[in-house]
């Protein structure tokens, strides 16, 4: 049985990636610190579902803690690492940049150092479309992303660069996957789609930063999980690969579809556009197709329908979830 270390296992993307790995016959060693950036009840919900599988083993720890992380390497045997542990969120990174640097940058360095010590060679790093701020669309991986506009993006860039260094020095096979606005069931409550569904369903005003015409290349979480695993299973040397829906959608369109699926009308409050946000994202996924044989399968309409249905099925639980 193949075995993999998956960090951020109780996170939104981490949970779906772990679930798919288990379905594919992997043993998954999961790591997560279950921090309270957003309501931990959601992380515990995901984690409890994973623990139902006997091939899932979990450690509650922070990848910033080198000595605790080393114990995981000493107690287990695995072939490689998928690093999904990260402090996410552009706006919060401006309020607390230090924790982004320690988790996203130092945490990645800890994993790379332990890979070197224990003789591992495959590393997948989750990165972000936020790096493409100010670049022409559709975003291609070879664009010069040297001017990040948030501490979050800067910390992810640092992790990418350090990963390349270890590829160069020690021959690690490294695949960096840059995610584009991931959404789906059991998603992150700090992200727009989770919040929009909850607000509209509970009859609360929807807060939109900007005029609603800003667009995102929304990508369904199961597609992201599949692309991440393909990145793990593919020898790439060192490659940066976009994983995105390949079709931008305006926030106004997202709200309209949620209204339709919930059968409820939204009251919208428009707020000033945040300077650290991107006005639009759009992934060029040519490399994903050519190197990984991957492209998204779930269109926005279907992905939103599934997400709204999950919300309806879990209304009582979700009323208890507080938004950051």
Automatic annotation (TrEMBL):
Q: What protein am I looking at?
A: NAD-dependent epimerase/dehydratase
Q: Where are the transmembrane segments?
A: none
Record keywords = NAD
Q: Which domain of life is it from?
A: Bacteria
Q: Which residues form a coiled coil?
A: none
- NAD(P)-binding domain location is 5-307
Organism, by scientific name, is: Thermovibrio ammonificans (strain DSM 15698 / JCM 12110 / HB-1)
InterPro entries for the chain: NAD(P)-bd_dom (IPR016040), NAD(P)-bd_dom_sf (IPR036291)
Q: Does the keyword NAD apply?
A: yes
Q: Gene3D superfamilies per the record?
A: NAD(P)-binding Rossmann-like Domain, UDP-galactose 4-epimerase, domain 1
């Amino acid at each position: 049985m193949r075995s993999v270390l998956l960090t951020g296992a109780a996170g939104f993307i981490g949970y779906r990636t772990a679930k798919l790995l288990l379905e594919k016959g992997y043993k998954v060693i999961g790591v997560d610190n279950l921090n309270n950036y957003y309501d931990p009840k959601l992380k515990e919900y995901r984690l409890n579902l994973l623990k139902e599988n006997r091939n899932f083993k979990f450690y509650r720890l922070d990848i910033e803690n080198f000595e605790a992380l080393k114990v995981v390497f000493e107690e287990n045997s695995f072939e490689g690492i998928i690093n999904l542990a990260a402090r996410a969120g552009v706006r919060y990174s401006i309020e607390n940049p230090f924790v982004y640097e320690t988790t996203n940058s130092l945490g990645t360095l800890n994993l790379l150092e332990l890979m070197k010590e224990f003789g591992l060679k495959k590393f997948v790093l989750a990165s972000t479309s936020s790096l493409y701020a100010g670049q022409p669309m559709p975003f291609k991986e070879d664009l010069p992303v040297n001017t990040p506009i948030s501490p979050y993006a800067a910390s992810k860039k640092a992790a990418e660069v350090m990963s390349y260094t270890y590829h160069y020095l020690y021959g690690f096979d490294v695949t960096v996957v840059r995610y584009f606005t991931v959404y789906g069931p059991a998603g992150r409550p700090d992200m727009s789609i989770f919040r929009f569904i909850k607000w509209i369903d509970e009859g609360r005003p929807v807060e939109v930063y900007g005029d609603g015409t800003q667009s995102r290349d929304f990508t369904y979480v199961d597609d992201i999980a599949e692309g991440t695993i393909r990145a793990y299973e593919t020898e790439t040397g060192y490659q940066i690969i976009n994983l995105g829906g390949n079709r931008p959608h305006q926030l106004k369109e997202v709200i309209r579809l949620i209204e339709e699926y919930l059968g409820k009308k939204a009251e919208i409050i428009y707020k000033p556009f945040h300077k650290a946000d991107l006005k639009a994202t759009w992934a060029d996924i040519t490399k994903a197709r050519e190197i990984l044989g991957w492209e998204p399968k779930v269109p926005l309409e279907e992905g939103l329908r599934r997400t709204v249905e999950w919300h309806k099925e879990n209304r009582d639980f979700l009323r208890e979830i507080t938004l950051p």
